[in-house]
Amino acid sequence: MTxxxxxxxxxxxxxxxxxxxxxxxxxxxxxxxxxxxxxxxLGITVAFGQSNHEGDLVDAIHNARxxxxxxxxNAGAYTHTSIALMDAISSTQIPVVELHLSNIxxxxxxxxxxxxxxVAVGQICGFGPAxxxxxxxALVGHLEDGT
Length: 147
Ligand code: CA2
Known about the structure:
Layout: E1 3-8, H1 20-23, H2 28-42, E2 45-50, H3 54-64, E3 70-74, H4 83-92, E4 96-100, E5 122-125, H5 130-145
Parallel strand pairs: 1-2, 1-3, 3-4, 4-5
Helix pairs in contact: 2-5, 3-4
Ligand CA2 binds at residues 11-12, 14-15, 18-19, 23, 74, 76-77, 79, 100-102, 104, 111.
């Protein structure tokens, strides 16, 4: 059975608890539950993780190889800074869908650059928590027929 990793970066553990006016009221645990529901509908499994530490995220990407068919990655602010995450993705060659709750292109200029985008299959942003289900569906479609 296909298994995907949904990986979240720094501060996303605070979702629903701080700044709801920016990131909404849904908690990361609720998003995790939504991911499991979508996975069940698609006949796959997902593992869900979060870390505030760049090296831990690099390790998680390295370790995903051979265990997960692909990764949905919300790298948080590391999206805009981390050549290490970009290198981890390109060196493992694991398919990654880049995900953001907010529309990073409609926000501050420093959020417009993504180091993940050049090594990702595609990017989904601006749809809030629903983006996770969209990203899982898109990644499964990509794995099935390369779309
Ligand atoms: O929109 C997204 O998903 C982001 O990846 C969220 C990151 C931000 O740096 C990216 O530019 C876009 C920030 C996540 C911070 O999450 C918080 C949640 C609650 C309270 C404070 C921060």
